[in-house]
Design brief:
Blueprint (H helix, E strand, L loop, with lengths): L10 H17 L4 E3 L13 H4 L6 H13 L2 E9 L5 E8 L5 E6 L19 E4 L2 E5 L10 H9 L4 E6 L2 E2 L11 H15 L2 E6 L2 E2 L9 E2 L8 E4 L2 E3 L1
Parallel strand pairs: 1-2, 6-7, 7-9
Antiparallel strand pairs: 2-3, 3-4, 5-6, 8-11, 9-12, 10-11, 12-13
Length: 235
């Protein structure tokens, strides 16, 4: 689980940090690294409306190259400019050969992100040597979007991995634990019902630009990831 600082409207710096995280994960003998949601421009940053790139494209190519260089699976969130001109909140799963084996578009968009991204229309799982993997994004795992996780599990996913950008008010601190109902509960439902591992990773940093300007992603300091299985969770 690769948390990293994501700066609004700074894709070059953000991607450089993502590549560093991939290298670090490989050094620590990880088979797969999960990076945050929309790590290129940051979630709902206005610059993505005009500067988003296609997938495959220059941003995804950097992640594919890092996957090959370090021999590791990479799952990451990016903003995709589709051929029809619409933007999507996208997640990609890259194998160690640098191939994009899943590209997913977020379905359960929050109302504040709907001006920035179009709604996705497909779900996929893929067989890998690690097991069968399904991909979704952040609020797809809210209680009101949990049908997405149910569907992935019923499609045979043994792992559901979710690039995320958990946003809280700037005044929230670690001891408030605002994620209990939003994340622990729905992740646990899927894990226990289907014996599936559900993993989410968020970015960190204060939000600059967009409808949530001034809030922050994750909890600072000591922000967290969530990993749930039928036997419990690791935070």
């Amino acid at each position: 689980m690769g948390q990293l600082l994501v700066e609004g409207g700074e894709p070059a710096r953000n991607l450089a940090r993502a590549v560093e995280q991939i290298a670090q994960a490989a050094t620590e003998k990880c088979d797969l690294v999960l990076l945050p949601e929309t790590l290129d421009f940051a979630w709902t940053h206005p610059s993505a409306l005009y500067e988003a790139q296609p997938i495959p494209g220059p941003f995804s190519d950097q992640l594919c190259q890092a996957a090959v260089e370090h021999g590791i699976y990479v799952c990451a969130g990016l903003t995709e400019r589709a051929a029809d001109g619409r933007n999507y909140n996208a997640a990609i799963l890259i194998n160690p050969q640098g191939e994009i084996i899943i590209k997913y578009h977020k379905i359960n968009l929050l109302s504040v992100e709907q001006p920035f991204y179009a709604v996705g229309q497909t779900l996929n799982v893929v067989d890998t040597p690690l097991g069968k993997i399904g991909v979704n994004i952040c609020a797809d795992n809210y209680i009101d979007g949990l049908a997405i996780g149910h569907t992935l599990a019923r499609m045979g996913a043994e792992f559901i991995i979710a690039p995320s950008s958990w946003t809280v008010d700037y005044s929230i601190t670690e001891e408030h634990d605002p994620y209990q109902e939003k994340w622990v509960r729905p992740f646990s439902i899927l894990a226990k019902l289907y014996n599936v591992v559900v993993v989410g990773t968020t970015s960190v940093g204060y939000i600059v630009g967009g409808p949530y300007e001034g809030k922050k992603r994750g909890l600072l300091p000591g922000s967290r990831c969530q990993w749930h299985s039928s036997s419990g969770n690791i935070q």
